[in-house]
Amino acid sequence: QKEVEQDPGPLSVPEGAIVSLNCTYSNSAFQYFMWYRQYSRKGPELLMYTYSSGNKEDGRFTAQVDKSSKYISLFIRDSQPSDSATYLCAMGTYGGATNKLIFGTGTLLAVQP
Amino acid sequence: GAVVSQHPSRVICKSGTSVKIECRSLDFQATTMFWYRQFPKQSLMLMATSNEGSKATYEQGVEKDKFLINHASLTLSTLTVTSAHPEDSSFYICSARDLGGEGTDTQYFGPGTRLTVL
Question: Which of B43, B51, B112 sits opposite A42 (nearest CB)?
Fold first, then answer.
């Protein structure tokens, strides 16, 4: 079993839809969680960072963490064609000397105009 | 957010030559940087962890003599692909660890370098 599971998609939605992207994980030691957006042939861009269970909102994006279920989500409201990209979840633990992140495989999202 | 640059963005070279890729954290100091490789439509594959002033730590299966990493300062890490061959053609991405305020510990990525070996 992989430490982090993420549906690769592709996920296709119409413009304006609410998008839900999800990851599950098996390692209860993970303490903080991130979502990155990666456009084709570009480096990943950090979207959201959270370290506690609950919701964190930033504009049209909401990150949700449920540590008891080992489940994290990213919601995108009023999705736009410019949101079309691959979304990667990532997670890690504090206190490590080098602190590798563990990434999901990424979900490819296409928002149709 | 913090900015990480990478140079060059694209390089084409002949088989057998060496290629150096630079990764710089522009507005913060990074004691740790990471080098990833990404194949088309696949996720990031961690190659090595680069620590300022010490030897890099390579992931299993990554040849350290093939992929030389130097982290000479708190803002610069370099990856040198030695004696490159066509199978080394890939998208190489670096990231820099930012120990920011409020207990955050995250990575910011560079824009990537596309290497094509002929």
Answer: B112
The per-residue DSSP string of B36-98 comes to EEE-TT---EEEEEEETTS--EEPTT--TTTEEEEEEETTEEEEEE-S--GGG-EEEEEEEEE
Q: Which residues of B touch A94 (CB under 8 A)?
A: 103, 105
Using a CB–CB cutoff of 8 Å, tell me whether A112 touches chain B.
no
pLDDT tens for chain B, residues 1 to 118 = 689 999 999 999 999 999 999 999 999 898 899 999 998 888 899 999 998 888 899 999 999 999 999 998 999 999 999 999 999 999 999 999 887 766 677 889 999 999 999 9
Q: Is A100 on the interface with B (CB under 8 A)?
A: yes
Strands A107-112 and A11-14, by their bridges, are parallel
B8 CB-near residues (< 8 Å, 6+ apart): B21, B113
Structure tokens at B79: 């990856």
> In a 10 Å sphere around its CB, with 0-12 CB exposed, 13-18 middle and 19+ buried, how is residue A86 labelled?
buried
**H helix or E strand, kind and range, residue A63:** strand A61-66
